Amino acid sequence: MVAAGENRPGGTAGSAVPVDTPGGPRPFVLLSVAASVDGYIDDTADDRLLLSNEADFDRVDELRAWSDAILVGAETVRRDNPRLLVKDDERRRARVAAGKPEFPRKVTVTARGDLDPAARFWHDGTAGQPPLVYTTESGARRLAERLTAPAQERLIPPAEQRLTVPAEIVALGAELDFGALLDDLAARGISRLMVEGGGRIHTAFLAGGLADEIHLALGPTLVGDPEAPRFLYPAAFPGGSTHRMSLLGVAQLGDMAVLRYRPQEARCPNPTTTTG
Ligand SMILES: NC(=O)c1ccc[n+]([C@@H]2O[C@H](COP(=O)([O-])OP(=O)(O)OC[C@H]3O[C@@H](n4cnc5c(N)ncnc54)[C@H](OP(=O)(O)O)[C@@H]3O)[C@@H](O)[C@H]2O)c1
Fold it and tell me: Which parts form a coiled-coil structure per UniProt (predicted)?
């Protein structure tokens, strides 16, 4: 729940979810990130750096409840071991009452296919909807190997082996095409995709012109470590450095600022340069 007196982003009072999600052939893609003031999304310590405060975690929970699927990169699965659940009971009940699964479907992306079958990603909130993994042809082979029975059982022919964790592996070819990934999600009835990072994944969606909205929550910290993961990495972003995104809203949640952008809309003209 949000503390009284705090502002929430969005066009409707008290709600963090997008209000204008034009239907299209592909899912509406929302990038959600918590970053330090200097643009990092973690540090290099073993434990995950918590950049959000309680109200911001609740905002993220609301976005999860809004979404049909939540996507994270394979490195986030390996490093953070997230569960990606909707925590609030009321929100889960509302989803079920609306005819949706209790939890959004989980999705990850890996080129190498090197994911631990013990990761929470596979095991929590996946009843009736196995997590989806988008990968390459070689990644699919590697992942099927990792997710099947232990070595001694691999003597049975591959076609007869069963995955030991619930998962649906989708090979998209020699390389991963994020547009094809969105087309496949659309074919599975996913119309709202929340992307929770990490930075490599956010970069791929933005560089591909595939993100509809960014929710950037700034935590009042400075990480200052060049080895730490960043929100975004160098890429040829559409429109280049002079393209100004449309700012939809700014909200304060305690000591955090939440900025909402539409990256593909450029409503404001470039500012004129003033001197003196
Ligand atoms: N503050 C936040 O909001 C937040 C949220 C999430 C994560 N994080 C942090 O972000 C860090 C991880 O971020 P990250 O940027 O290192 O990794 P990431 O984006 O989570 O995952 C990167 C991985 O995704 C796969 N991948 C990415 N682009 C691909 C492409 N074009 N084709 C095929 N596969 C591709 C690769 O997997 P393979 O290596 O398996 O091939 C790659 O190593 C962690 O420290 C985590 O704590 C922070």
Answer: none
